[in-house]
Amino acid sequence: MTLKIKKITVLTIISLVFLSGRIISKSAEKSELQKNNIRKLSISVFPILMYDSDIGFGFGGKGVIKNQFKKNESFDLMLFGSTKGEQRYAFVFSIPDFEIRQGTYYPLAFDMKIEYNKLLKSNFFGFGNDSEDNDFQFPREVTRLELTLSHTFTPRLVGEIWLRHNHYSVYDYDPNWEIITARTPGVGETEVTAGSLRLRYDSRNSQIHPRKGVKIDLQGEAGFPVFTPKWNFNKLHLECSTYTQLFSKNHILALRYWMQHITGDAPYFEMSLLGGGWTLRGYKADRFVDNTMALVSMEYRFPIIRKLGGVLFIDSGRVWPSLNDFSLTGWHQNVGVGLRYYLVNFVARFDLGYSTEGTRIFFNFGHVF
Question: What's the pTM value of the predicted model, to 2 decimals?
Answer without folding.
Answer: 0.86
